[in-house]
Structures are given as C-alpha cells and as structure tokens.
Amino acid sequence: MRERWTWRGAFVVAAVGSAVGLGNIWRFPYVVYDSGGGAFLIPFVIALLTAGIPLMMLEFTLGQRFAGAAPRALERAKKGFEYVGWWAVLCGFGIVTYYTVILGWSLRYLVGAFTLEWGEEAGDYFFGRVLQLADPGQLAGFPLDTLLPYIIGWICIFFIIYSGVKGLGRVVMVTVPLPFILILILMIRGLTLEGAMDGMNFYLAPDFSAIFDASVWIAAYGQVFYTLSLAMGILIAYASYLPKNSDISNNAFMTSFADCLVAFLAGIAVFSTTGYMAYQLDVPVGEVVASGVGLAFVAYPEAISLMPVAPELIGVLFFITIFTLGLDSAFSLTEGIVCAIMDKFNMKRSQATVLISVLAFLVGLVFVTRGGLFWLDLVDFYIMSYGLTVVGLFTCILVGWVYGADRIRGYINEISEVYVGIWFDICIKFITPIILTVLLVLNIYENIISPYEGYPGWMQLVGGVIVMAAILIVGYFFMKARTREAEEPEEGEVS
Description:
With 495 residues, the protein is an all-alpha fold. It has helices at residues 8-19, 22-26, 28-34, 41-66, 70-77, 82-113, 122-130, 144-162, 164-175, 177-191, 196-204, 214-227, 234-239, 249-281, 293-305, 311-345, 349-368, 372-415, 423-449, 457-487.
C-alpha cells in the first residue's frame, strides 16, 4: 500500500520546502538587481503565471493521478515515456550529489559562526582553510573541514528519508517555517543598519527600460523554472503520496507564491546587509555584491564581521538558515529518487534509502576533494542549463500534445478549489515549450561562442559531449515512443 501524507498541510509545506532552496538566498536577489531591479518583478510574475504555476500543476497532477514517481507516472500517462521520468530522476541525483557538499559547508560555517572564525578575510578562510582549493585535476585528498560536515549532512538526510512520508511530514513542519522566520529576523536587522537603503536602492530601484530587453524576459523564465524545483522529479513524487481528490490548483498557487515571497524577502535581507558593508568600507554597493557561493560564504560573512552588535548571533542565524534551506532541498531530491526506485523495483523503503544514500554519498566525494569546487560548479552549470531544460521541454510536449493538456486541466478542475481555464492549455502547449526551447538554444550558442570561463578545455569538451549525447538520446527515445503511441494507443490511467 502506498504511503500517504497525514494531512494536506504536510504536503504543501513539504512542496514549499523543496522549492525554497539556496537559490532563493544567493541567486534570486542577484538576478533581480542585474535585470532591471524592481522592474524585473513584472516579467517575473508573468513568467510565474504562464510557466511556473502551470508546470507545477502539471507535475502535481501526474503524481497524484497516476500514483507514482516521475518514471511510473509518465509511463502510466502514455506507454513509452518512462525514460523522460528517469531523465528527471538522473538530474535530481546529479544535483543531490553536490548539494549535500554545500550543505556540509553551511554546517562548518555554523560552527565557526559562534566565534566569527573567518575573521575579516572570509575569502581566504573559505578557499584556503575550508576547501583547501587546488586545481580541478587534483581529486585526491579530503579536507576534514568539508568531509566531516558532509558525512553529518548525509546522516541527517538518510534518517529523514528512512522515516518515511509520515516522518518526513513531521520534519518539514520544523525545517520549512524555521528559515522563513530567520530570514524575517535577518531582514529586520539588515534594515536597521546604516547604508541599508543604499543596498535596497541597488536591489529594487526600477529600470523600466529593461522590460523591453529580451534577455531580461529569458532570465525571468529561467529563474521561475529553476526556483520552483521543476523537472527534478520531486513534486511528482510528493504528489504521488496525496489521497485521491486532493486539491491541485490551490496547492500549486500556495507553493509558488510562498517560494517567491521567501526569495523576495531574502533579497531584502541580503542587500540591506551588503549596503551596510559598502557603507563601512566606503565603496559602491556594486563592489561588494556577489552571487552563488561567493555571497553565502564570502561576502555575507565579511558583512557579518563588520556588524556593530552581536555579529556572532547574526552569523549563527544566517547559517542555520542556509543549513535548513539546503537540508529541505537535499532530502526532497533524495526522496524523488528513492520513490522512483521503490516503484520500479518493488523495493522496500529501507533498501532503496540505503542504496541511493550510499551511491550518492560516494559520487559526491568527488566534490569534497581539493579540486571539487571546479567540478561542482561545472556539473551544476550543465544540469541546470541543459538537463532540467530538456526534461521540462519533453514533459510539456508529452502532456500538452500527446496525452492532452485539456485532459489534465479537466482532472484538475474536477478536484480543485480554483478553476483552471484554457490559459493552462496555451501555456503547456505553446508558451512554456517555446521559452524552454529558446533557453536551450541560447545556452548551447553561448557555450560554443563563450566557453565556461576558468576551466580547462578538456573539462568543457567532456561536458559538451555528454550534454549533446544525452539530448540526442532523449530525442531518439521520444520519437520511438511517439511512434509506438501512434501505433498502439493506450490509456493506462489509474483511477
């Protein structure tokens, strides 16, 4: 018998936890300021309504209606499309192998925050002491400052997944609200600092001319697609544990808007604090702004060290936030993989959890090595730029054109509180596939004319060959499955 969420709220909170991740802290604020400030919110909201929410509804419906993780759900929707689900699971597996490494970094910084161990040179502390960074070819040696927290992080993930859906539901009731509360505290503290308004102006001052820039719209759709954890198999797996006739549309709206709210508030917390840092150093805000790991583990810690009152407390709160955000995303990714393995091989949860945890742990050791940061950055680039885009594109084509977007919409309206109109069909069949195709083509074009900077040519060649081979394989199986579907139509629905 399939496991079930104990109540609707547990599912919504878990879905929010999977969506709200580290990108809300270190990617969204940077994209906003770099794409027109407050004016960026206009294309962002449009992208959310025309791509993010429709895709989330689609994934919720697949999981609930066909009672399975991504591979089983897609196979039951149309015979021959299971491989698209496995592609999503594979992307999720790749992400969790390095996401847990970042989780370990946050745990190490949390310990160091009690004494502000990084001092005023957080860059030297991060790259020199914690990572002991070497060239990408040096995969030998595991710095204890990264290895031990990495092991602890995987132990936490293992026991959360091992406890099953009910246990997971209890965990998210703590780990999801906690970072939201902490972000509010960090935001309030940041706004009370001198120079905070300079940072806020840098973050939100609108440049309405950016609305007419096509690259800003591409950035908006890209941000929406990645921030909601779409195409990773997570949301389909979580929805497969829903009781029949559970709401779809309202859950999707709540999850999406909660994720965006956290990202927006995190931006206020980040830029108000970096504004204070710029004020203290007497430099423009743009000189202290960073994104990605540079923000979380270098720029923000340096800003914390400059705070006048209780900087240790702010440091502890910040890295608890980073740790809980990373933990929610990491065990959500793992659950999507474990669910797929249980479905496919009729394996017990305990067996599947051990198998996936051990395998992902061993693969992730590559990113723990002294040259691991380079590989982490490159793998993240290829999965986010190509892997997830291909999954989303083919899922839209499958559901929109082969299975039928109208059938999905009809099912949603039968059981949901919020009525979904014909706009859903238009988004799934036209708008989202077009945008994802544009993203894919632009990524390929930019990667050819401007290779990923800072990496040896052989690393980029390996990555490019793998990406192109994977796209061709997915396309081949798509055409093969489409031919089979035309010759042997099958409903395959689960009532």
